[in-house]
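Q: What residues go here?
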């Protein structure tokens, strides 16, 4: 149920526009005065803006405690066209506030971390002047996500949806003149933008169909009438939900539109954390949860959602096993975990999806930011090594796990928090990931045996590749000079990591029986399928994870890689299979062959024979004709009076002859 904005409400609900306006204020202050402020001041302003938005979210949380049905808080009338009446209104209910809290809490910690990270990264990249621009873009990202999750209609939601897409483009390609060939980062941003636009086309079609079916885009007008419309137009409901799923596969990186997310690692590490943990990729899961009524009316679409999520979870986990880039392992892990959430929505377990979304925000932000701490340390060490013994020390890739090793003693704080994040992601009890992932696997066990097996297999691979990563990065001996010179990061970086580690440890409690049980909290907004803790399923899941970690230790722990050039043990045993997985099953190459290559050839045809040849030929031909005609007529203007008199006489004679002939 959702109450009208005309209904009497607690005045505390009126603060909701501040979740957008406070980050906007941060942008304005840094934009107008940032050049006169130092880096720490710029970062502090941006962090306080997002922190203020988090405080507003807490106020809304307590307001909903007394009135959990929620309210629509109007800000202004947007536009009215015929029967379409759209206002800019904020939807405050238990679902939207959960998203606000998760995004703003994790976003605040990422902003604080970025104050220290971007200081060093901007120097390393050779352009400290972009520091202010970075925080403006980060605040803009939070604004777009707040608009998306607080929208009271599909059109306002789409504004936020496109906003996070724009911000991802700006931030993934933030160092647009860096990367291989000086263009790789720019191409990564472009790839993310174009791929997600393909999905956005599907969401737009879904929105058009929703207006056609319901005559409105307001949630309060649509969801109560879903049963009536579905009874009369079941095919239309199926089309709406499948086109919406197309949008989800773009934003939440599901098969077949997942390919942009690993390349998003081109952005600075705080961007990776923000995209993968708190913003953009969670938008699709939120959209389907918000649109639960539509999916419940289209069981066939739910089945498609379930299979897309499950296959993505397993497929991405397989690819992560053979990656060497520390951030790309985490990127494929994100795709896999999003698959769990999407599968949960298809299984009808939206509460489990939201539970895992929140805990995932904690431990995935922790893992990405911890990887950033490692990368910064190696970059510092390379610079020190270059100064001390020549430029040869600068040639290693600071993100390649083969160039690490032995960092457990060099970076003890980063090691322990990374270990917490890895174990949480692996589903080890009693950490948060154990409880949230277990609910999804339990829902699969109750609904579809094949999906259950697929998700358990993905859980096994998750624990294995995280065990592999921990052993390659932190154990054994340092395999490069940079790794041997690594040092722990500054408190400005490690303190947010410690807080995220604590959240990853205790985050599972948000769905325990108590005053804030997520399941009972969300039942005021969506239909909740009550879940119960299934001890056999939990033990199976935990056992599978522990076995996977043991296997990882047997392969990578007993005989660690001796040198950075040593062959991976799995590569020695699996040969070409490992190479194929390492090359991501050549999906990018397949897409290039099937879509990008033909598109480029078609574009080349229209650019050269058609545009430059035919169309430009017409325009150039007309220009040449005018030029030649002018050149010829210019010969008549020779400056001699006798020539002009002769021309006049000749003209008169021609006119007289014409008149005589006519007579």
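A:
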């Amino acid at each position: 149920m959702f109450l009208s904005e005309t209904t009497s409400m607690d005045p505390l609900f009126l603060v909701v526009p501040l979740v957008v306006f406070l980050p906007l204020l941060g942008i304005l202050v840094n934009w107008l005065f940032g050049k006169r402020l130092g880096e720490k001041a710029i970062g502090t302003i941006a962090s306080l803006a997002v922190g203020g938005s988090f405080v507003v979210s807490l106020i809304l949380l307590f307001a909903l405690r007394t009135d959990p049905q929620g309210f629509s808080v109007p800000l202004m009338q947007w536009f009215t066209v015929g029967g379409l009446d759209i206002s800019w209104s904020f939807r405050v209910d238990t679902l939207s506030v959960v998203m606000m809290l998760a995004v703003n809490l994790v976003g605040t910690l990422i902003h604080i971390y970025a104050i220290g990270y971007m200081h060093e990264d901007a120097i390393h990249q050779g352009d400290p002047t972009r520091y202010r621009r970075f925080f403006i873009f980060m605040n803009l990202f939070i604004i777009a996500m707040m608009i998306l999750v607080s929208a009271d209609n599909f059109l306002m939601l789409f504004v936020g949806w496109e906003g996070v897409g724009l911000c991802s483009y700006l931030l993934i390609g933030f160092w647009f003149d860096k990367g291989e060939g000086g263009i790789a980062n720019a191409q990564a941003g472009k790839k993310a933008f174009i791929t997600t636009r393909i999905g956005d086309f599907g969401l737009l079609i879904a929105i058009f169909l929703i207006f056609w079916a319901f005559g409105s885009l307001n949630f309060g007008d649509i969801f109560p009438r879903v049963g009536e419309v579905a009874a009369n137009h079941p095919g239309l409901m199926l089309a709406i939900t499948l086109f919406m799923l197309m949008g989800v596969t773009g934003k939440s990186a599901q098969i077949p539109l997942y390919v942009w997310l690993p390349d998003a690692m081109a952005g600075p590490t705080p961007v990776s954390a923000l995209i993968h943990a708190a913003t953009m990729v969670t938008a699709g899961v939120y959209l389907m949860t918000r649109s639960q009524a539509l999916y419940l009316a289209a069981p066939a679409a739910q089945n498609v959602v379930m299979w897309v999520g499950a296959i993505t979870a397993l497929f991405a986990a397989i690819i992560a096993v053979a990656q060497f880039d520390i951030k790309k392992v985490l990127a494929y892990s994100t795709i896999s975990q999003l698959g769990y959430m999407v599968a949960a929505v298809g299984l009808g377990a939206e509460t489990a999806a939201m539970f895992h979304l929140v805990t995932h925000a904690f431990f995935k932000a922790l893992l990405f930011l911890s990887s950033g701490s490692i990368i910064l340390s190696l970059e510092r060490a390379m610079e020190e090594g270059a100064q001390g013994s020549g430029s040869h020390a600068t040639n290693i890739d600071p993100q390649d796990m083969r160039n690490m090793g032995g960092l457990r003693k060099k970076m003890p704080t980063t090691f322990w928090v990374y270990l917490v994040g890895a174990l949480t992601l692996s589903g080890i009890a009693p950490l948060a990931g154990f409880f949230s992932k277990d609910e999804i696997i339990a829902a699969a066990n109750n609904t579809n045996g094949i999906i259950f097996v697929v998700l358990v297999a993905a859980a096994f691979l998750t624990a294995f590749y995280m065990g592999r990563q921990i052993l390659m990065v932190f154990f054994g001996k340092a395999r490069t000079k940079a790794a041997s010179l690594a040092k722990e990061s500054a408190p400005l970086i490690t303190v947010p990591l410690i807080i995220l580690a604590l959240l990853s440890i205790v985050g599972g409690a948000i769905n325990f029986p108590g005053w804030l049980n997520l399941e009972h909290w969300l039942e005021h907004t969506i239909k909740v399928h009550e879940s119960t803790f299934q001890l056999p399923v939990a033990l199976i899941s935990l056992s599978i994870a522990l076995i996977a970690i043991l296997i990882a230790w047997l392969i990578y722990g007993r005989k660690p890689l001796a040198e950075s050039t040593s062959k991976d043990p799995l590569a020695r045993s699996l040969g070409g299979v490992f190479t194929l997985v390492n090359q991501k099953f050549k999906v990018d190459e397949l897409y290039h062959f099937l879509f990008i290559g033909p598109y480029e050839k078609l574009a080349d045809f229209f650019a050269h024979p058609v545009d430059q040849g035919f169309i430009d030929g017409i325009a150039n031909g007309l220009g040449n004709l005018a030029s030649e005609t002018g050149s010829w007529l210019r010969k008549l203007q020779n400056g001699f009076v006798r020539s002009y008199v002769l021309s006049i006489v000749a003209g008169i004679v021609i006119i007289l002859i014409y008149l005589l002939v006519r007579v």
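A: Context that may help when evaluating the design: The two ends are 93 Å apart (CA to CA). The mean pLDDT is 90.
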